[in-house]
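User: Structure please.
Assistant: Input sequence and predicted structure:
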Amino acid sequence: MLIVARNWCSRGGVHATKSMARPTGSSRARGYAVLTSRATLDALDLTKNKVQQIANVDSEKIDLAKIRVPIKANWASTQKIVVKSISKSINIPNEEPVYLFFGGIPALMAAAKMKTKYPERNLLFINNGILSKSEQSGHQAHNHPSEFVAADCNKRNLAKTMARGLGILSSPDPTDIENYSYLHFPKIFKQFLEKPNQNLQLYTSFFKQRILHDLTSKNGVSVQDRWLCRTIEKSLDFHETLSDKIAAKTGLRTLKRDFRIYWSHDHKGIAAKEATWKELGIPCETISELELIKRTILRLDKNLAVLKISKDGQFEPETSKRVIKYFSDEYPDTFKVLEGEVNEIYTNPLTHEPEAIKVKENHGEIRIVPVKSVFGTPGHDQVFKYDPLNGTEKQLWKSVPVSGISSLWICTIPRKELENRWQINENEDAELISHLTKICPGANLCNLHVTVFDHEIRDENVQLYVRASQGANFNSNVADKNDLVNIATNLDKFFIGDWRLISAGTCTRQTGVTNVPTISGMFGYDYSGVGYSASVPPDENDPKPSLF
């Protein structure tokens, strides 16, 4: 691996030297640093807001137009959905029934797939317009199996994580990069006291699935893992084709698919990751020294092991909006969008097929919409089937919330340093911008995802707008703040530039014990951490295998 020593120069820049030893001392003396203080991170209360602004964007001279993700958001309540048999009391308008899709990015991409295959059909997409999981994601297009393949989810670490959740073991120091784990089982005693039977069943099922995965795996991966990888491949292929169409029409892409990287100081861990990925048929290789320099902002003096994952990439923050606009413009009469919440779905009592839905629009109007079919990805499990005989409601599925940190950072790097690093001409904006747009997304073995989604050249510096996300706080709707401290520790140690935290919050995904997406009848759920990448539904003749 290429080793480059650096020193902090008096003029405020960082320059490469040929033989100078790296100076010791503080992060500031190194020339690279997370400037947001630990006290600021410790004072953050993640329960107050979904997303909280940390820095004053005016004092930091940040271009608000470059911030393409939300930096403030309140918690939003979940709206229950009830499936009922249709009755004479429901007045269905005399309108042409539509193919209805509602919810997040998987529902939108299911609509996009149908519209592409059947352009003549009348489609309606309903979304409530509230901050979605996709906007809080790491925006990385990634092909990978379920979390059961990850080292943090092996039986030994699961037992340790359970012990930490029970208070038997102390949580690892988030600044201890060698031993920190992104998986947390929080406040297990409290969970068991509140819902003993439900939580006993949950954790028992989780460990049972872990054991079952190992028993049915070949070289560490199961049939479900292989199915998930093939599903993601097909999904990303569709996204890429659609992105090409959107770019041809608007000049704006939704997906940049080239490659992304896995990096770590743990060379054995990266070698094991490479072996697993190749077993799954995911093309990968050790990145070249030249690509490491030109395509990343990783430090070059840390002897990192870096794995290049071909055919991965990153989504644009505006992906959903651009997909909606494209289909609305292309099919103005047959692709409609409505902002609101689906409250009830009415089905035929004999065929159980949907015939209408009730939606509450954002401005308050209640509408009944006749439908030919329904597919929803609500992003939660508050979906119930009403039994008219006894007047009760039965929950159709139960998901587990898993929460991680989603943060926005501004990384400032002296322009001169990047020109030296990339061997480009001084003061050539076009050449510098060309390199900035090629910085690839990356992740490490502790589930930290770092994605540069925009940039700005300001005076003698370059500002990068970076999404950093990490963590799996199991059975919790609030992220673990230790993950944010661990993010800051990794950025400080392994990346060039000065880093300032702009906003941070919780990104919650829903999963089941199998940790793979599920489509059942009218609903898709449990997309977990692959929601964006696996958002295009598989073909009907490609059923999901079961471990049982």
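The longest strand covers residues 400-414.
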